[in-house]
């Protein structure tokens, strides 16, 4: 029987120079963002700029959850409307043939309860990526990553594809030799598989009511499970992922399970370092809800404009019960506000947080 670590504010231990490192990261991101906006004559997200599908769906919290799982948003067995945005990690529009990390952002609407920050909203966002850890998992390490990312706006898609191939080969060799994979290699070494078959992770921890957890979403219905590990065809072109998502949802529903991995030991499952994978054998990912995505037009022009230009997904759009935890999460509080503010200002579009699903265009 596991003992779940109880949430308390002093689980977070800020770095002494955290403010300054965060300032550097945000300033570097903004510089890259301005270059990208000038290139496209349009403001994009500082990260996860390219969307592949925007879906309306429903989050169904499971009935009868045990006390340790029935926390925060998951305390009551009820359904919430959600907006999901599939994306790719860079802050520029790259070919879908470049194998980089993919995103799955879920905005749960109409969630009652005290807020993590005083934003007056009623949304709970979960921002997930198809990798269990953030290889640069503290703000100090992330500031180093920024130096790699800063070079990317000047690199072509084929240079990035080659860098990915070299990194995957290096990762395989190191893995076979039983050697640790350096964070820089891990970041570049994503495989290019069908986005709908992937499993997505919060990478970093968040408060889970009385406890602490990482969140993940995994394919549940057989039609998306069958896509796991299916490579994206090379000849499918620059927008292969959008075409796959649109083609799938033209006549298919899909289901994903939302899971919580609770912290049972602060040494092996640290809160301050998101590069450490919490061992599944010490604490499994336990299912708390089903995400139902019905068949629909996943990429109408109106939807793309709304999701890319109006909406902002942000880990700090959160209940107090799901407060983001650790230095990476704290740095995101400033980074997302900056990126979203710049994007909306550049495009002359007002920031708006939806209250109902009716606001998502068909
Ligand atoms: C725990 C690791 C992280 C995960 C899982 C994650 C995930 C995501 C996802 C899925 C999106 C796309 C949201 C959408 O569809 O609109 C996103 C956007 C973004 N991410 Fe992260 N991210 C992480 C860490 C970071 C860090 C450390 C920073 C910077 C300090 C950062 C900066 C951004 C920015 C600026 C955006 C665009 C925000 C906007 O303009 O609306 N992320 N992230």
UniProtKB/TrEMBL annotation:
Domain of life where this protein originates: Bacteria
Gene Ontology terms, MF aspect: heme binding
Gene3D superfamilies: Catalase core domain (2.40.180.10)
PANTHER family: DOMAIN PROTEIN, PUTATIVE (AFU_ORTHOLOGUE AFUA_5G01990)-RELATED, DOMAIN PROTEIN, PUTATIVE (AFU_ORTHOLOGUE AFUA_5G01990)-RELATED-RELATED
Official protein name in the record: Catalase
Phylogenetic lineage: Bacteria, Bacillati, Actinomycetota, Actinomycetes, Pseudonocardiales
